[in-house]
Write a structure and sequence with these properties.
Number of helices: 19
Order of helices and strands: HHHHHHHHHHHHHHHHHHH
Largest sheet: none
Helix content: 55-70%
């Protein structure tokens, strides 16, 4: 949807938000691991954990609608071609994500989950904003409880029996059940972010009424998610929080890579304590975690789009960062490969250097994206994906 003026600014704002999501994932993967929050890098990492990937997922839904027809869904031959393009993208993401998951980075990779999200979103491509918003709201309120029930029913013998016939599980250790229910980005709860992003993409972000509603909705979800969880556990839960297991998602990938053992195993699960359903910890998958993370994602996206549309000089200043957002797939895969190439297989990375390492990753990404964008319209992987999806034009 190329254009000029505010409309273009709001699409540039989406790229800015996407870049911020990528930088947030950098922070989670290479930020300080001990005493997070003790310095700038630790504070950024604490703020980003769980929320950066949620923003990334919401922007995936936004992009799906851009492909499918933002204000007027494509139908007929064009609609069929859109679906084929999305399926091809999903297959490529699944292949790349599976390959990366087979490394020491393990199940912190989100790309294979992206592939599942894309496929699950296919029936919703023609839905209007209101319908998508209702579906996202229902999922956010109901899906975490359903996920809890399913995880409770899926005992280890049942899981082993199912995984024995799952080629993905045998290939990389992250199988269909992980992608749908039991992993770090399970579709059953994370589709809330994707569908919410689809709903936002259907809206006219240039309209003042839309901006005001989103400006109220984002903070309201943040307060509802994190505030209600705090009240439930700290005020009414008594000593409950003190006995809850720590949430340590395997997005702490660098620590495991540097130690030569892969990402540390998670020492928590919903089965460990039903009170986790009231926690808003990153990747806990509770309703409060989902609502709070979604509120952050909406707020970041709205802020980026409004600022980029309203402050032209800031748009020019943010150009190098925006360039990262235009090739987020390339930068995301590149940062994983860079982490895997880091020295230190026999010792964990020194915490004192991890903040510097984080900013080094950000700087390298900005320099690469800025330089590449001067000569090419798309990033390297974006170009390959775009070329692969051209076969969809043959559909009639």
């Amino acid at each position: 949807m190329a254009g000029t003026g505010p409309s273009m600014g709001r699409l540039v704002g989406v790229d800015l938000a996407r870049a911020l999501a990528v930088f947030g994932m950098f922070a989670v993967h290479v930020g300080p691991f001990e005493a997070a929050g003790s310095d700038v890098g630790g504070w950024i990492r604490s703020l980003s954990e769980g929320r950066a990937s949620a923003l990334f997922a919401m922007l995936a839904g936004f992009s799906l609608i851009l492909i499918a027809g933002r204000f007027e869904p494509k139908t007929g031959v064009a609609g069929r071609q859109v679906r084929i393009r999305i399926v091809i993208r999903a297959v490529i993401l699944l292949a790349v994500g599976t390959a990366l998951t087979m490394t020491n980075f393990g199940d912190a990779v989100i790309l294979n989950s992206y592939a599942v999200y894309f496929l699950l979103a296919l029936p919703l491509l023609r839905c209007r904003a209101r319908t998508l918003a209702i579906i996202a709201a229902v999922l956010g309120l109901v899906a975490p409880q359903v996920a809890f029930g399913l995880r409770t029913l899926l005992s280890e013998p049942i899981l082993d029996g199912i995984n024995a016939y799952d080629p993905l599980e045998r290939l990389c250790g992250v199988g269909v059940l992980d992608l749908l229910v039991t992993g770090f980005y399970p579709a059953i709860t994370w589709m809330t972010f994707v569908i919410a992003g689809m709903a936002v993409s259907r809206l006219d972000l240039a309209a003042g009424a839309v901006q005001r509603r989103l400006a109220a909705l984002g903070p309201a979800l943040i307060v509802l998610g994190y505030g209600t969880s705090w009240l439930a556990l700290k005020v009414f839960g008594g000593g409950i929080p003190d006995r809850l297991p720590a949430v340590k998602p395997s997005t702490d990938a660098l620590a495991g890579v540097a130690a030569g053992s892969g990402p540390p195993p998670a020492d928590w699960s919903f089965e460990a304590d039903p009170w986790l359903l009231l926690a808003a910890e990153p990747h806990s998958g509770s309703t409060f975690d989902v609502l709070g993370s979604l509120g952050v994602a909406i707020t970041v996206l709205l802020s980026a789009t409004v600022v980029m549309a309203g402050v032209p000089w800031l748009r020019r200043l943010a150009g190098p960062v925006i360039a990262v957002g235009t090739m987020s797939l390339t930068v995301y895969v590149g940062h994983i490969l860079a982490i895997l190439a880091l020295p230190g297989e026999n010792a964990a990375p020194p915490d004192a250097n991890s903040t510097a390492l984080l900013f080094a990753f950000v700087l390298c990404a900005v320099v690469f994206a800025t330089t590449w964008s001067r000569f090419f319209r798309r990033g390297p992987l974006e170009y390959l994906v775009n070329s692969a999806t051209k076969v969809a034009r043959l559909a009639r």
